[in-house]
C-alpha cells in the first residue's frame, strides 16, 4: 500500500518524465536561489585599507562557523522533520539569513562579521530540507544530481551576480543583501513547486525502502551497526569538503594567483563545465538497479575523482596545465566524490541495507564534521598564514586531502564488502 501523502498535492501529477522534470527544476531552483543568500559576498575583497587587510578570511570564517553549527543542528532537525513542515521551515530559515545580510550592511566592520555568522546559521539546513523531497525514489540519483548541479553552478553564478552588483556601484557592505533580495521571489516560486511533489509510490518503496523520520535512538543504532565504514566515508567527505569550500570561497584569489584577470562571467563559465560533467557521471547511476552494485560503483566514482584530483595537481606542478583547465579539472576532481556522496553513496546504502531512516541524517553527520574541518583550516590560515598566497595553500591542502582520502576510501570499500556481502537479498524489479 502506498504511503499516505503528508501534504496536499495541488497538481494532477502523472508518474514519469513530467514528475521527474518537475522535481529536478524545483530542487535545482530552490537550492540555487539559497546560494544567492550565501555566496555573493565572496565576490568582494574587503581589503581596501590596512585596517581590513585579511578581513575577508575572517568574514568567510564567521559565515562557515555559523554554517557548521547549522549542520550539527541539522543532524537532529533534518532527520526528524515531518514532510508537511519542510517548506514553511525552509522559507523561515532563508528570510532570517536575508535579515542578517541587511544587518551586515548596517553594522560597521569588523563587527559586521558577526552578521555573517548569523547568516550562515540557518542556511546549513536548507539542503537537507530540499533533499527530503527527493530521496527514496527509483530516480533519486537523477533528481539529486540535478540538485547538486545547482550548488556547483550557483556557486559561480551568484559570484557573478555579486561582481555585477559591485561593478554597478553597489557598496561591498550592501552587495550581499542586494543579491539576496534579487533571489527571494524566485526562491518562493521554487519552494511552492517543491510543496506539490507527491511522496514516493509503492514501487519506489519496494525498490529503495521507506524513508521515515529518525529519533535519537534510531540514529544511534544505525551508526553503531556501521560505524567503521561510515567514519571512513565521512573522513573522505571531510577532506574533500575542506578543499572544495576553499576553492569556492576564495575563487577570486585563486584565479588571481594563477595570473588570470577576473571578469563577471569567469566563475559561471568554469562551473558550467564542472556541473555538466558531474551531473552526467553521477546521474548515470540511476540506471543501475541493484543497490549493492550501485553503492560500490558510487565508491568507484569517488576513487576516480580523487585520482583525477592528484593527476591535475601533478600536471600543475609540472607546468603543463594552463589556468582555466586547471580550475575546471580541479572542480571535477573535487565535485565527483562530493556529489557522489550526496546522490548515491548514502541513498544506496539505505536501499542496500533496508535500514529504517533517511539520508538526511547521514548527509548531515558527514557535512557537520566536513565543515568543522574547514573552520579549523581557516583558523590555522589566519593564525599561521595571514596574508599568504591562497593558491599555494590550496595546492598544499590538495595533496594532503587527496592522499589521505584515497587511504580512507580503500578502508571503507573493504569494510562494506565484508559487512554487506553480495549474496544479500535485494528487492525484485517492480
Please explain how this structure is put together.
The chain has 430 residues and is mainly α. It has a single domain, classed as Growth Hormone, Chain: A (Up-down Bundle), CATH 1.20.1250. The protein is built from 15 helices and no strands. Helix 1 packs antiparallel against helix 7, helix 6 packs antiparallel against helix 11 and helix 9 packs across helix 14. The longest helix is centred in the middle third of the chain and has 34 residues. The protein is globular, with a radius of gyration of 21 Å. The protein starts with 16 loop residues before the first helix and ends in an 11-residue tail after the last helix. The N terminus and C terminus are likely disordered.
Helix content: over 70%
Radius of gyration: 21 Å
Q: What is the total tally of β strands?
A: 0
Arithmetic mean of pLDDT: 87
According to CATH, what is the topology? Growth Hormone, Chain: A
Note the main sheet: none
CATH domain class name: Mainly Alpha
Which structural class should the secondary elements be placed in? mainly alpha
Q: How would you describe the shape?
A: globular
What is the CATH superfamily classification?
Answer: MFS general substrate transporter like domains
Structural domain count: 1
Cα separation of the termini: 14 Å
> How many helical stretches?
15
Low-confidence stretches: 1-14, 48-53, 425-430
Approximate strand percentage: under 5%
What characteristics describe this protein?
mainly alpha; about 75% helix; globular; disordered N terminus
Amino acid at each position: 500500500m502506498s504511503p499516505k501523502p503528508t501534504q496536499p498535492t495541488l497538481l494532477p501529477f502523472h508518474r514519469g518524465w513530467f514528475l521527474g522534470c518537475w522535481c529536478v527544476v524545483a530542487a535545482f531552483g530552490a537550492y540555487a536561489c539559497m546560494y544567492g543568500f550565501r555566496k555573493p559576498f565572496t565576490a568582494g575583497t574587503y581589503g581596501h585599507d590596512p585596517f581590513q587587510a585579511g578581513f575577508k578570511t575572517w568574514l568567510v570564517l564567521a559565515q562557515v562557523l555559523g554554517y557548521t553549527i547549522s549542520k550539527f543542528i541539522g543532524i537532529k532537525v533534518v532527520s526528524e522533520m515531518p514532510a508537511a513542515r519542510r517548506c514553511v521551515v525552509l522559507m523561515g530559515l532563508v528570510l532570517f539569513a536575508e535579515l542578517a545580510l541587511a544587518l551586515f550592511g548596517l553594522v560597521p566592520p569588523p563587527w559586521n562579521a558577526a552578521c555573517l555568522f548569523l547568516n550562515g546559521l540557518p542556511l546549513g539546513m536548507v539542503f537537507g530540507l530540499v533533499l527530503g523531497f527527493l530521496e527514496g525514489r527509483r530516480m533519486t540519483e537523477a533528481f539529486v544530481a540535478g540538485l547538486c548541479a545547482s550548488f556547483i553552478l550557483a556557486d559561480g553564478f551568484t559570484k557573478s551576480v555579486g561582481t555585477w552588483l559591485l561593478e554597478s556601484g553597489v557598496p561591498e557592505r550592501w552587495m550581499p543583501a542586494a543579491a539576496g533580495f534579487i533571489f527571494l521571489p524566485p526562491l518562493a516560486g521554487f519552494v511552492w513547486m517543491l510543496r506539490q511533489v507527491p511522496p514516493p509510490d509503492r514501487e519506489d518503496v519496494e525498490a529503495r525502502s521507506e524513508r521515515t523520520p529518525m529519533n535519537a535512538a534510531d540514529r544511534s543504532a544505525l551508526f553503531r551497526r556501521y560505524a567503521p565504514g561510515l567514519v571512513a566515508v565521512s573522513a573522505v567527505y571531510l577532506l574533500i569538503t575542506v578543499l572544495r569550500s576553499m576553492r569556492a570561497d576564495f575563487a577570486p584569489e585563486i584565479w588571481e594567483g594563477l595570473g588570470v584577470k577576473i571578469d563577471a562571467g569567469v566563475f559561471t563559465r568554469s562551473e558550467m563545465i564542472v556541473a555538466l560533467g558531474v551531473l552526467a557521471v553521477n546521474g548515470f547511476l540511476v540506471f543501475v538497479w541493484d543497490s549493492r552494485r550501485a553503492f560500490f560503483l558510487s565508491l568507484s566514482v569517488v576513487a576516480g575523482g580523487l585520482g583525477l584530483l592528484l593527476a591535475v595537481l601533478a600536471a600543475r606542478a609540472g607546468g603543463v596545465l594552463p589556468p582555466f583547465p586547471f580550475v575546471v579539472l580541479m572542480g571535477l576532481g573535487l565535485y565527483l566524490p562530493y556529489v557522489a556522496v550526496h546522490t548515491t553513496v548514502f541513498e544506496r546504502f539505505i536501499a542496500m541495507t533496508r535500514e529504517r531512516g533517511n539520508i538526511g541524517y547521514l548527509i548531515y553527520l558527514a557535512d557537520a564534521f566536513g565543515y568543522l574541518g574547514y573552520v579549523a583550516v581557516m583558523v590555522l590560515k589566519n593564525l599561521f598564514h595571514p596574508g599568504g598566497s591562497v593558491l599555494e595553500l590550496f595546492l598544499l591542502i590538495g595533496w594532503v586531502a587527496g592522499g589521505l582520502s584515497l587511504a580512507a576510501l580503500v578502508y571503507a570499500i573493504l569494510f562494506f564488502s565484508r559487512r554487506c556481502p553480495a549474496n544479500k537479498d535485494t528487492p525484485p524489479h517492480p
